Amino acid sequence: MVKYGLDYTRCRWILPLLLGIGVIFGIIALAGRGWLESQTLPYVQQASLWESCRRPEQGGDWTCESLMGYAWGRAAAATYLVGFILLVICFALAIIAFAIDTLRFNFIRGIGGLLFVAAVFSIMGLVIYPVKFTSEMEMTGINMFSWAYGFGWTTAIMEICLGFFFCCLPNYEDQILGNVKPTYFYSSP
């Protein structure tokens, strides 16, 4: 991307596209019921960020309990939700930043800083949830943190990596805008 510059049409929208993928992963994590699941038959426990469900036997009905009744449940949901909202704001700002013909590199660096803040909030929620869930909720059988929880961690890792990219991109401003003379390594005989 740096070699061809941000005006190169196929490379200009890579960063906002990656942020969009991060937003989609965050939506999957927020809406998914697979934060914690039973690992073996009979499947007796399933939890999301918002509620915990269990059933007594294989054919029984699921009974669900809201995690919003616990202070740690509200804290985990709130911190992860704040991180997700900041990610959506960064996505909107990135679309605006890359749609303008003249890039504002300080604006891009600010998006990177905001992504780091979003990552901190997301990681706080992702750490609070398993620590408090396993210590305060009754667990039966063998359980594992599952696919939706993994999407949450993928979102947090993408926030960190894209934050570095957005913060480091202004260091190559001259190369991106084409203000540097090419260096040729040719010596005459």
Automatic annotation (TrEMBL):
Membrane topology: Multi-pass membrane protein
One GO location term (cellular component): desmosome
Gene that encodes it: Perp_1
Gene3D superfamilies for the chain: 1.20.140.150
Keyword Ion transport applies: no
Annotated localization: Cell junction, Desmosome; Cell membrane; Cytoplasm
Pfam families: PMP22_Claudin
Keywords, sorted A to Z: Apoptosis, Cell adhesion, Cell junction, Cell membrane, Cytoplasm, Membrane, Transmembrane, Transmembrane helix
Residue ranges of the TM segments: 12-32, 77-100, 107-131, 151-172
Keyword Transmembrane assigned: yes
GO-annotated biological processes: apoptotic process; cell-cell adhesion
Taxonomic path: Eukaryota, Metazoa, Chordata, Craniata, Vertebrata
Assigned protein family: Belongs to the TMEM47 family.
Record's protein name: p53 apoptosis effector related to PMP-22
